[in-house]
Design goal:
Elements: H1 3-28, H2 30-56, H3 62-72, H4 76-84, H5 89-103, H6 108-127, H7 130-162, H8 168-220
């Protein structure tokens, strides 16, 4: 099949997909166009964050717990090696902690501060871009409400212009825009809020796992006392 025909068919398919979207934006106006842009940004951030969590092994704490078990059983080298070969944030923090405990060169208070710093760095990386999703979840309903107000202004302006001869058809456009923008705002905000809550819960679980395992291995270390509260 000639390349020209393939390109033409591809353009036709793209046109068929984009045509309803363009009509939707044309009916809803600038507010709907902005909300559509926010939906694209939100989807991009969600997919990027989901891929990041998957590749970094977020939520896979079983192997970290196994490394902690080896340490408490007195198998320090095996525990350090096991933790170092896994890429999850919990394993990285645990690996740092075990290596420092094995060296035994620093005071507990100094070591605690360094552990907190390393853990904080990993948690900050996990929270990266979540603020963007939070902003979208907050402003999308407000934009929908703004579009609703604009639509109602249009409807009442049509009523004022018509005077005593009000035609319901003259009001339909403004009411349509008002309802459309409200629905669009909620359609963007609801899935974004749900996904944001899911990501935040995973980050919190990862942080709790870090704290529990670090406290456990430091407590089990015969040369050190437990981490202070």
């Amino acid at each position: 099949m000639p390349a020209e025909i393939v390109n033409t068919e591809l353009l036709n398919h793209v046109s068929l997909i984009l045509k309803p979207l363009a009509e939707f934006v044309e009916m809803g106006g600038a507010v709907v166009a902005i909300l559509l842009g926010l939906s694209v940004i939100s989807l991009t951030l969600i997919l990027a964050k989901a891929m990041e969590f998957m590749l970094s092994g977020v939520g896979r704490g079983r192997k970290s717990a196994m490394a902690a078990d080896l340490w408490t059983a007195g198998k320090a080298k095996a525990a350090i090696s096991f933790a170092a070969h896994h890429r999850s944030p919990v394993s990285k923090v645990l690996s740092f902690t075990l290596q420092e405990l094995a060296d035994g060169e620093r005071e507990l208070e100094t070591l605690k501060e360094d552990i907190e710093r390393v853990a904080s760095e990993h948690i900050s990386k996990l929270r990266r871009n979540l603020r963007g999703l939070e902003v979208i979840a907050q402003i999308a309903p407000l934009l929908g409400l703004f579009g609703t107000v604009l639509g109602m202004i249009t409807a009442f302006q049509a009523m004022a212009d018509a005077g005593a001869q009000v035609n319901p058809a003259d009001l339909a456009n403004g009411i349509w825009v008002a309802l459309l923008t409200t629905a669009a705002g909620l359609a963007v905000a609801i899935p974004t809020s749900i996904t944001l809550a899911f990501f935040e819960s995973r980050v919190e679980r990862e942080q709790v796992a870090m704290e529990q395992l670090v406290t456990r291995v430091v407590t089990a270390n015969p040369q050190r006392s437990p981490l202070p509260a």
